[in-house]
């Protein structure tokens, strides 16, 4: 990034700087079974996917379960190949960290499972700035963001999202819960970046996994791969993506 970064433990570095999907719940075993079957489409080269998380205290009630499920997603994507992934998270008083880019996603799984939630405001602007600076260095295929709140100036987020749209970095904004301010901001970030907004039920683990699977397909193979996959989640994304045939 253009500002100074410092490398910390586990290879992380400090960063200084639609239509809704509603699904019924499934249990953990169903989720894990689906996670192990993830196979991102090939043919578009090695994609680069940023996976960003809000780790502030409001997510604490669902954090442990979410980390376990997202770790399984990393495992599945790592086995399938076709993606380099960077983990970004923020929490506490101005803490925002970004990992190295890795194809061995077990490293990110191990890092993520050590993160705990800390009180603080959202830092979505830093996440978007990181995506902008990373794609200036080398094109980024897509960014996934998972969060439940927005406590920043929405116009600033929209400016950054528009810059990502110009650089062809779609933002897939997944909202946990139904906070109206977050919904408005996430929808605009998705629209301006050329991505998609989807809200998920925190209890519907399989729905989140399948949505992330669809994003992985897109990041590694583009719109054509997403169209070929034929899943319900792929159709949900195609309905919002520019050029999609949902």
Would you write up a description of this structure?
The protein has 246 residues and is of the alpha/beta class. The protein is built from 8 helices and 8 strands, in the order E-E-H-E-H-E-E-H-H-E-H-E-H-E-H-H.
What descriptive keywords fit this protein?
single chain; 246 residues; alpha/beta; eight-stranded mixed beta sheet; 8 strands; 44% helix; 17% strand; globular; disordered N terminus
Q: What kind of sheet is the major sheet?
A: 8 strands, mixed
Mean pLDDT rating? 76
> Into which percentage range does the β-strand content fall?
15-25%
Q: Low-confidence segments, ≥5 residues, pLDDT <50?
A: 1-12, 16-44
**Count of strand segments:** 8
| Gyration radius, rounded | 16 Å
**Coarse shape:** globular
Number of contiguous helices: 8
- Strand order, largest beta sheet: 1-2-5-4-3-6-7-8
C-alpha end-to-end distance: 36 Å
**Secondary-structure element order, N to C:** EEHEHEEHHEHEHEHH
Structural class: alpha/beta
Please give the share of residues in helix: 40-55%
Q: Which secondary structure elements does this structure contain, and how are they paired or packed?
A:
Blueprint: E1 6-7, E2 13-14, H1 28-35, E3 47-54, H2 60-80, E4 83-91, E5 95-98, H3 106-112, H4 124-137, E6 142-147, H5 154-166, E7 171-176, H6 180-193, E8 196-200, H7 205-229, H8 232-238
Parallel strand pairs: 3-4, 3-6, 6-7, 7-8
Antiparallel strand pairs: 1-2, 2-5, 4-5
Helix pairs in contact: 1-2, 1-7, 2-3, 2-7, 4-5, 5-6, 7-8
């Amino acid at each position: 990034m253009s500002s100074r970064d410092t490398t910390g433990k586990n290879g992380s570095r400090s960063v200084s700087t639609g239509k809704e999907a509603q699904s019924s719940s499934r249990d953990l075993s169903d989720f894990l079974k689906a996670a192990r079957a993830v196979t991102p489409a090939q043919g578009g080269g090695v994609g680069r996917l940023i996976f960003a998380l809000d780790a502030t205290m409001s997510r604490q009630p669902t954090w442990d379960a979410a980390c376990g499920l997202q770790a399984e997603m990393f495992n599945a994507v790592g086995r399938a190949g076709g993606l380099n992934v960077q983990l970004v998270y923020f929490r506490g008083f101005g803490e925002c960290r970004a990992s190295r880019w890795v194809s061995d996603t077990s490293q990110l799984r191990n890092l993520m499972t050590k993160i705990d939630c800390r009180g603080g405001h959202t830092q979505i602007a830093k996440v978007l700035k990181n995506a902008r600076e990373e794609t200036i260095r080398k094109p980024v295929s897509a960014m996934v963001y998972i969060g439940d709140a927005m406590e920043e100036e929405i116009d600033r987020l929209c400016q950054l999202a528009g810059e990502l749209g110009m650089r062809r970095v779609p933002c897939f904004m997944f909202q946990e819960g139904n906070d109206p301010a977050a919904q408005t901001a996430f929808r605009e970030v998705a629209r301006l970046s050329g991505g998609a907004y989807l809200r998920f039920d925190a209890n519907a683990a399989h729905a989140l996994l399948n949505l992330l699977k669809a994003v992985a397909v897109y990041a590694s193979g583009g719109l054509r791969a997403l169209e070929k996959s034929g899943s319900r989640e792929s159709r949900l994304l195609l309905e919002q993506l520019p050029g999609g045939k949902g």
